[in-house]
Amino acid sequence: MPRRLLRDGEVVTDDWQYLSELEEAVDTTAISGLIIPFARWATERDRWASHPGRLGVVLLPADKVEQLAPDVARFALIAAEFPGPTDGRGYTQGRLLRERYRFTGELRAAGYVRRDQLFLLARCGFNSFQLDTNDLPGATSAFSTFSAEYQPSNDEGLPQALERR
Amino acid sequence: MYRYDAMDKRLVDERVAEFRDQTRRFLEGSLSDDEFKHLRLRNGLYIQTHAPMLRVAIPYGLLSSAQLRMLGSIARRYDRGYGHFTTRQNLQYNWPKLETVPDILAELATVEMHAIQTSGNCIRNTTSDHLAGVTPNELEDPRPWCEIIRQWSTFHPEFNYLPRKFKIAVTGAPQDRAASLVHDVGVHIVKNAEGVLGFEILAGGGLGRTPIIGQVVRDFLPREHLLSYLEAILRVYNLEGRRDNLTKARIKILVKSLGIAEFKRRVETEWELIRDGGLRVSDAEVERMRNHFNPPAYKTLADSDPAAGKDAAFRAWYRYNTAAHKVSGYRVVYISLKKADVAPGDATDAQMELIADLADRYSFGEIRVTHTQNLLLADVEQEKAFTLWQTLAAHGLATPNIGTLTDMICCPGLDFCSLANASSIDVARLINDRFDDYDYVYDLGELDVKMSGCMNACGHHHVGNIGILGVDKGGEAWYQITIGGAAGADASLGTVIGPSVRKADVPETISRLLAVYVEQRRDDERFLDTVRRLGVKPFKERVYAAPVAA
User: Fold this and answer.
1) What is the reported pLDDT for A99?
2) Which of A63, B95, B237, B445 is most buried (most C-beta within 10 Å)?
3) Minimal Cα–Cα distance from A89 to chain B, Å?
4) Does any CB of chain A come closer than 8 Å to the CB of residue B7?
5) 10-residue block means of pLDDT along chain B (550 residues)?
6) Any residues with CB less than 8 A from the CB of B36 and at least 6 apart, and which?
7) How many Å apart are CA A24 and CA A30, to the nearest integer?
8) Residue B367 lies in domain
């Protein structure tokens, strides 16, 4: 069954595939919308740099975002994998990608993603959420959990954000 | 004190709505125990030995009379008629029903209170000096800065799932009454050589299983950079802190393993990249916050000696339970929550309501919570101290023991906490029973006894002059004793004197330690100083020389 996810506030069918989900024999060069692990990018850069179609990369929490910095423009999608409810490194990865490395493509939260995290994830720059299926219906309401913020972040990076009042 | 504006109010109401929805989803079964756990832990709700425990934030320990009245009223209507003030200036309810917690939060919101981030691996309540704004030798009132940190850290999008909890304490005076050296981050207001006020930033302090004194990361930080610097520290910690082992996940372990120089290098590298971004604290913002903490309308009064000619009971109380105020004619009054037969830090609903009334009558309607689990009225006219004392005494709130042996810090222990190995409240009671002679207690002078029911060290035992730690020995609760710890500006960690002792032997053990002190002390030397001078040896020898008589 095709994967459904929340992207830019809409429930859509995922048009991306993870390398890890493919059979060994598949010709990856024919796939547009392919997400490879950061470790593969780091070790086989030349091979993937010439990938003809859309290319994405998925970061594990321990992966260093700064190592991706020179290449962010090469990717149409960057995903952060959340291994469970307690590992929050992906939030920092998201902010760095958006605010420091100016990544403008699809920033996806994958792994353990529940509606209760959406508000904070969106504030860290994520616009795509591979939500648990049970959480998909009505999940968009989570984006309006709070109507204001105390601190500047990706969505509020203007100087003097503290003094909006 | 800080009053909510429309935005603060809306945010707290929205948090209540969010938590109500999460609780509903849990109760109807669409959230598992584990999923709900991570959500309720962002809101101070633990599932404990007997019942849920709800921890309510008291930002930097400051309460209005309306807030304290509400805390009392909630204790009566939703709990068993009392609450427990903690070492981090919060209040805990030990018996709320899970399904009523959203209603409790809604009631708290009506008086500008909440339980946001009082548990979980996020930035906790920012604590401070309970004498902020009234102590004579303060450089600057730290509370505006506490509120600036509170707002920045509330619902911080990046730092809600840290490796471990994160506690910040801010002080503005040379004396450290906030235990800032054993916090994840300590912020000290300091003055540089040019006379400009800024901050000294410490990191990596903490108690628990591996007690460590915080180290200086930066000796002078211009004030406009406070938040960007904290953000840099948190960011380094979020990415680099250990997540493979819960007991090694606090920032103190990161600082220790990197070394302070390398930790600082990483923090400053990050800070250089964000220091001039949106987190700069402008003069206008500082001014806005300061205006929330303007001094009350003090009268012009002369200093007097209200104890002169009064009876001994009042004189003792005045000496031990009041402190100097920077404005002449005024005095700081401590309300001891360390009565012999009461769990340290507990107050009943009626006591809370009474204290709220007294605050209105005697102290501009404000109350403070100390990290030593007492309350205080900061702005009492000296001439009114006697009538205030009469009322306090009539309600069991004038135990004249602040700063003495029986003013013990104590965690809730096994009676309430699922983590504890041992009970602490009944040990406090044994100690109180043993040391009921005030002349002896006063003769001992300043003495800080702190007790924790387990390694998590909620009772700060490592930094007690005498520390008592509950340990589990084959299913039985024993108590390990340390001496020489201190929590102030000269903070140090206590040394274990030897094998742990049985519960019944704790008072005798303390008695022997004190006997060595009384014999060996020089002049006005405090217990702490005697221990520092002599080392542990003579104390240890005395304690273990003979078995405690059965």
Assistant:
1) 93
2) B237
3) 6
4) yes
5) 95 97 94 92 81 93 98 97 92 93 98 97 96 96 97 96 97 94 97 96 92 96 97 98 94 98 98 93 94 97 93 95 97 94 90 98 98 96 97 96 92 74 82 91 94 88 95 90 94 95 94 96 95 96 84
6) B22, B23, B25, B26
7) 14
8) 312-394
Q: Which of B7, B22, B278 sits opposite A148 (nearest CB)?
A: B7
Residues 6+ apart with CB under 8 A from B124: B88, B117, B118, B165, B166, B167, B168
Q: Residue B219: which CATH number?
A: 3.30.413.10
Measuring CA to CA, which residue among B92, B42, B47 is closest to residue B71? B92
Boundaries of domain holding A19: 4-163
Contact yes or no for A146 and B11 at CB 8 A: yes
| Domain total of chain A | 1
ipTM: 0.95
> Chains A, B: CB contacts under 8 A, how many?
104
Listed as own residue / partner, the contacts of B312-320 with beta carbons closer than 8 Å and 24 or more positions apart are B313/B393, B313/B400, B314/B386, B314/B389, B316/B400, B316/B438, B316/B442, B317/B389, B317/B393, B317/B398, B317/B400, B318/B385, B318/B389, B319/B400, B320/B400, B320/B401, B320/B402, B320/B403, B320/B404, B320/B442
B386 in a structural domain: yes
